[in-house]
């Protein structure tokens, strides 16, 4: 009888609880709130731990992604720098090749700078061409912009170039100053001013009127350098210390400090071509 009565009460409670109602009874509310509080109490620490673990995992993930992005960014910067360097070299080579066409009479030898000593950076550099390539001592060396120096010593496969910035009084370059609507003025490149980074064109007659912007080219009269090689432009003209001649400060066309590709120019080719032309004219 007790089991039967209990079963009837249970069925009645089940029926009462599952029927549609607008509100819960007080025991149901108490039971729901109790269960909710218990769930809240357990949920907060569990959720905190779970969120902490997720945040730590996210942090590790972000760190790894950040490292990957940094590596890719470094690679990207390297690619940009390499592209810029290649573009610069391509442009320089194109200019050099274009300049070679205008110097075809001189049979220029293309070369690449392979070394520059830190203690003699402004004086000398080494190129990858030597006697086996037709390079000889005292040949002129230039870039697509202009003259930079001459061959100082020659090996079988490498040569040392003495730059214009390393010239001393024993090295002179005979030059013409090309002026507009006037004849050329003669002078000698006899030195380099370290403070201003300009060449010293000396032995200019006092009656020669030079102006800033006048072009200086090699005259070919010295017997070493071919004629018509671009050297630089006149920036300033002053009288020498004795007042007998003038000295011009010349800004070189070529950058003497950033050099990668050069041309070695042989004067003998010009002489041979000139003699051949004279023979043809005579015939």
Q: What does it look like?
A:
The structure is a single chain. The protein is an alpha+beta fold and 283 residues long. 39% of the residues lie in helices and 27% in strands. A six-stranded antiparallel beta barrel has the order 1-2-5-4-3-12. Strands 6-7-8-11-10-9 form a six-stranded antiparallel β-barrel. Strand 10 and strand 11 form a beta hairpin. The protein is rod-shaped. The C terminus is likely disordered.
Question: What would you say about this model in short?
Answer:
The chain is of the alpha+beta class and 283 residues long. The chain has helices spanning 2-18, 26-102, 267-282; strands at residues 109-115, 124-127, 140-142, 147-154, 159-163, 173-178, 185-193, 198-205, 215-218, 230-239, 245-252, 261-265. The N and C termini lie far apart (150 Å).
């Amino acid at each position: 009888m007790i089991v039967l009565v209990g079963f009837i009460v249970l069925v009645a409670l089940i029926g009462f609880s599952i029927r549609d109602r607008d509100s819960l009874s007080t025991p149901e509310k108490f039971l729901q709130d109790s269960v909710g509080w218990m769930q809240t109490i357990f949920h907060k620490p569990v959720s905190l731990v779970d969120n902490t673990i997720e945040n730590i995992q996210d942090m590790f993930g972000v760190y790894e992604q950040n490292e990957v992005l940094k590596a890719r960014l470094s690679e990207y910067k390297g690619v940009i720098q390499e592209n810029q360097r290649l573009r610069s070299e391509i442009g320089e080579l194109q200019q050099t090749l274009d300049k070679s066409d205008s110097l075809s009479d001189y049979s220029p030898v293309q070369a690449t700078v392979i070394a520059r000593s830190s203690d003699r950076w402004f004086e000398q550099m080494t190129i990858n061409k030597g006697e086996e390539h037709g390079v000889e001592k005292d040949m002129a060396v230039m870039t697509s912009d202009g003259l930079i120096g001459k061959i100082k010593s020659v090996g079988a496969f490498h040569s040392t170039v003495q730059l214009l910035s390393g010239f001393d009084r024993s090295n002179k370059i005979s030059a013409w100053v090309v002026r507009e609507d006037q004849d050329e003025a003669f002078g000698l490149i006899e030195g380099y001013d370290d403070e201003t980074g300009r060449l010293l064109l000396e032995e200019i007659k006092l009656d020669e009127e030079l102006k800033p912007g006048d072009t200086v080219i090699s005259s070919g009269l010295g017997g070493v350098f071919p004629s018509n090689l671009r050297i630089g432009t006149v920036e300033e003209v002053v009288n020498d210390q004795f007042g007998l001649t003038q000295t011009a400060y010349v800004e070189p066309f070529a950058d003497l400090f950033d050099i990668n590709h050069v041309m070695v120019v042989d004067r003998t080719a010009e002489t041979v071509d000139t003699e051949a032309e004279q023979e043809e004219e005579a015939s």
